Structures are given as C-alpha cells and as structure tokens.
Amino acid sequence: MDSRQPPRLKASLPDVRPLDRARSLKVKLSVVVVVSVLIAASITWLGLRNGLGPTKTFPLAIIFSLSFTLLIARGMTSPLREMTAAVSAMAEGDYSQRVRATSHDEVGQLALAFNAMVEEIASSDQIRRDVIANVSHELRTPVAALHAQLENLVDGVVEPTPATLHTALTQTERLSRLISYLLDLSRIEAGAAELRVKEFAVGDFLEDAVGALTMLEAGKQLDFVVDVDPGDLTITSDPERLRQIVTNLVQNAIRHSPYGGTVTVVAREEGDEVLLDFLDEGPGIAVEDRERIFQRFARGGPNSRSVNHPTSGGTGIGLAIVRWAVDLHGGSVRALEAPKGARIHVRLPKNHTLVGHQPS
Ligand SMILES: Nc1ncnc2c1ncn2[C@@H]1O[C@H](COP(=O)(O)OP(=O)(O)OP(=O)(O)O)[C@@H](O)[C@H]1O
Ligand SMILES: [Mg+2]
Q1: Is ligand 1 within 6 A of the CB of residue 252?
Q2: Which parts of 17-53 fold into alpha helices (H)?
Q3: Is the beta carbon of 333 within 6 A of some atom in ligand 1?
Q4: Ligand 1 atom with the shortest distance to the CA of 320
Q5: Histidine kinase domain: which residues (predicted)?
Q6: Closest residue (by CA) to atom 31 of ligand 1?
Q7: pLDDT single digits (tens) 269-283
Q8: Does the structure show a pLDDT above 50 at 320?
C-alpha cells in the first residue's frame, strides 16, 4: 500500500473545520455537544409539532446530530490523520509532507510542532547525505589517482622518477589528511574533547607553528610575518588545539595566496582576550560566503572570490575544525573584511581555566 495515499475517510466526507478559531479542544467538544443536542431537540420538537410519532422523530434526530458530530470531529482530527500519513511517508524516506496546521487548539499546536520536527529531521537527513557523498567523493579522488599512478608504474608505462613518486606521495598525504580530519570530526560529533591547558608564550608558539608550514608554500615564494604585541604575550590554552587553529588557517592562507604574496599572523592583547588575525593577499572571501565556509564540507561556491577552488584539493573541513577548536576554548572566529585578501579573526580567552569544557 502506498503510505502517501490520503486516509480512506477523506474521500467520503469533506474536511470541514469551522471550529479552527477555538483555542482549546475542550471548547470545541463543548460546542459540538451543545449543537448536536440542539439539533436533536429541534428535530424532535419539529417532528412532534407536525404530527410525526416518536418512532420517526427520534431516529431522524439521532441521524442528523450524529452526522453533524461526525463531520466536525473529522475536521478536528484530520491533522492527526495527516500526521499518521506523514510519519508513514517519513519511514520510507519522504520528508516532503507537512500537516495543515490551521486550528488554534492543542491539535493545531501539535501539528505546528510536528511540522517543525519534520523540517529539522529533513535538514539533518540532507546533511547526513551530503557528508556521505562528500566523504566518498573526497576519498575516491586520491585513491583513484594513486591507483592509476601505481598501475602505470607496475606496467612500466611510467618510470619511478622522483616526480612520479612525489605525485603518489601527495595523494597519500591528502588521504591521511582527510582521515585525520574525519577523526577530528567524529570527536566533534562526540563533543568529547578535553582541553589540556597550560600557559605559554604566544610569540614562540606562532613562530614555531607558522615555521613548520612554510614548506607548504609550493614554490610560491611567500613571505611569512608573525607580529605579536606585546612581544612577551602569553596565553593559557590547549597548545594542541591552538596549533590546529593556526595550521588550518595558515594552510588556507598559503593555498589562496598569489605568487610572491605575504601571509601575516597578528596577535594582540585586548582586556582578558588574545586576538589573532590571519591575513593573506589572495582573492579574499565573498561577504555571502563568510558564514557558510565554517560549515563542514563547505567550499567556495560559484560566487567565491577564490580563484583556486574547488579544484585546489581542499576538503572543506578545515574551518569547521577551527570553529570547533575555538568553541572549545569559549572563543569566537569570523571572516572579516580586509583591505587586501582574506582576514580570519579569532578571539580566545587569555586565561582558559576550564579543563574538560564541552562545546555548547
Ligand atoms: N584565506 C582564504 N582565502 C580565500 N578563500 C578562503 C580562505 N580560507 C578559506 N577560504 C574559503 O573557504 C572554504 C572552506 O575552507 P576550509 O579550510 O574549511 O576548506 P578547504 O581549505 O577547502 O579544505 P581543507 O579541508 O583541506 O581545509 C575554502 O574552500 C575557500 O573557498
Ligand atoms: Mg582549509
């Protein structure tokens, strides 16, 4: 049976809802009882006045008042039937059905809540499908490239030169990056990250973290500037998570930088916060993309000012991980307008003392 078929009663009786304005089911039921009693009484009175005996008048009165009750009750309960049909459709993966929520009583409120719930389930189902599709795609691309590369090497079509081996290595690096991202993502899902905070010097930390990334510039001849003020600025936070933040943001800056560009990391103290800015001289991030890019698997869209995407080999998870790591510290991260290129602005508490803080 097609569960999306409307219930059978629908065909036999019209869906009348004259009592939709009533705010409570009790009021509706009282109205139905009073009106059907009035109908029965009027018919009995009319019948008796016109010389019809009780054997004819009573059945007539019952038929009319019962028909009225059935008609109104049907309108009152039709959202419940619609919900049943929608739930059956959802069980088959169809989240498009909504309930007509016109009444103001408890059933109407239930219908509204039901529609909101279906909306929510539909959107998380869509995200789940997207994640599976994206992950499969991201895993397939380097595996296919590696497979072709190794096949050519085995068949002797290409020589195992440093260049061919380097290409194969790049694909495996991409695979391992994706896998470690996925592990991070599952930790995000579990919300189970503990912060291991300690106090350390921001300047040394940034020099070290950015220095380790300079080799990723891929011959772009980039300049790397780390500007910390005051020079002895310290922070109490989790260095491992902070390294994730810096690594992802500097990797993005490198990826989007033009040849000969400058990647700048600025650290400042403001009250009880440390402000970090990651700047590059690339195409920048379009205003309409500035919130979306922090979602998982979001990459620059067709309107993106980024010239490198979506062919640059990114997985679209980096910024989601940055936001997660920043949230764990109770900080914030945003993409802001910059005179040139992109500017990612991170605010972290200078003294994070909460160990084992869970993201909200
Ligand atoms: N510095 C930047 N300049 C321009 N666009 C950027 C910059 N940083 C991020 N973006 C845009 O935001 C998108 C999401 O970035 P994110 O770091 O989440 O993913 P990615 O860099 O594509 O992949 P990866 O998962 O490898 O980091 C990018 O695809 C890009 O369009
Ligand atoms: Mg990235």
Answers
A1: yes
A2: 25-49
A3: no
A4: 18
A5: 134-352
A6: 300
A7: 999 999 999 999 999
A8: yes
Helices vs strands, H then E, count in the chain: 8, 7
pLDDT tens digits, one per residue of 133-146: 767 777 887 788 88
Ligand 1 pocket residue status of 279, Cβ below 6 Å:
no
What count of other Cβ atoms lies within 10 Å of the Cβ of residue 332? 13
Q: Which helix (H) or strand (E) holds 71?
A: helix 54-91
pLDDT at 241 > cutoff 50: yes
Read off the pLDDT of residues 93-104 as tens digits, 9 standing for 90 and up. 888 888 887 778
Backbone φ, ψ for residue 204 (5° rounding): -60, -45
Separation CA 257–CA 263 (nearest Å): 8
Cα separations (Å) of 247 from 239, 241, 349?
12, 10, 19
Contact 316 CB / ligand 1 (< 6 Å): yes
What is d(CA 248, CA 340) in angstroms, rounded to the nearest whole number? 20
What is d(CA 90, CA 97) in angstroms, rounded to the nearest whole number? 8
Strand arrangement of the beta sheet that strand 223-229 belongs to: 223-229, 262-270, 273-279, 343-349, 332-336
State the pLDDT at residue 126: 79
Question: Contact, 282 vs 261, CB < 8 A?
Answer: yes
Taking residues 278-292, report their average pLDDT: 95
The torsion angle over the Cα atoms of residues 102, 108, 112 and 113, rounded to 10 degrees, is 180
For the chain, the domains span 9-104, 130-190, 198-349
Q: Are 204 and 239 in contact (CB under 8 A)?
A: no
For the domain 130-190, what is the CATH code?
1.10.287.130
Report which protein residue has its CA nearest ligand 1's atom 13.
299
In angstroms, what is the span from residue 177 Cα to ligand 2's centroid? 11
Q: For residue 183, give the H/E element and its range.
A: helix 162-190
CA distances from 269 to 11, 79, 276, 284 (A): 71, 57, 9, 25
Q: 170 and 327 in contact (C-beta within 8 Å)?
A: no
Instruction: Provide the pLDDT for residue 348.
Output: 97
